[in-house]
Amino acid sequence: MLFLTTVAPWLLLAFLGQQVSLSSGARNKHRGADKTVTAAPDKAPRSGDKSAANGRGKFSINNNMQCTWGAKAVGDAVKLSVKCEDREARIKGGVTDIKCEYNGKPQSCAGYKSNNKSFWKQVARAFKKLQGKVCSDESKLVRAGICKRAPRDAHFKLDIMSSVNLTQSGEPETHLPPPPQARATAAAPVKPTACTARVNHLKTAEENCSGSWASVCNFFLTMLQSKDC
């Protein structure tokens, strides 16, 4: 009996201590779970591709149409927006503006992130080589040389549905009116004057008067002509 009264309090204290330890462990476990759930959003990967921000450039088509292009990350892909303008065509007529988009997934190319500047320089050269096929030929891919062994979707392909060509007719040229044509007027026949007629009569008289009468005929005809003229 004495043994039970002595040991019983110690057994009770041990039991209570065990319960307190189990309760403390359960609380710490719940706290750790709460911390894990709270920290999860901070560790989530961010969307967007910072490498695409470096993609932009200029090129010309046939030395008349000036073009610009820029890259933008769209989900897991990259979109290239191309805009071209020909100011001279606004006056003379023809294609004035060209717009289109190219899509690709360059992330599958190792050189896209390891050597990003060289990648975009090679894309700029690829646009210059396309020339008149820009925004018109969807079979022509815009390729970077460092991505030769990359999958096909790593290169940029034209979205033909986004291609837009704007044309404008030239302004009408101002033509000067032709100079008035000179009207050909027929010259009126010159009528013989009285003096001309007299001269003709004189020649006739000289031909008809012969011999000693020739001087007499000339004298009278000359007098008649001087009175009329």
Automatic annotation (TrEMBL):
GO BP field: cell-cell signaling
GO CC term, one of those recorded: extracellular region
Localization: Secreted
UniProt-recorded Gene Ontology molecular function terms: growth factor binding
Pfam families, A to Z: FGF-BP1 (PF06473)
Keywords: Disulfide bond, Growth factor binding, Secreted, Signal
InterPro entries in alphabetical order: FGF1-bd
Signal peptide segment: 1-25
Principal subcellular localisation of the protein: secreted
Chain positions covered by the region annotation Disordered: 26-57, 167-189
UniProt family annotation: Belongs to the fibroblast growth factor-binding protein family.
Name used for this protein in its record: Fibroblast growth factor-binding protein 1-like
Organism of this sequence: Gymnodraco acuticeps (Antarctic dragonfish)
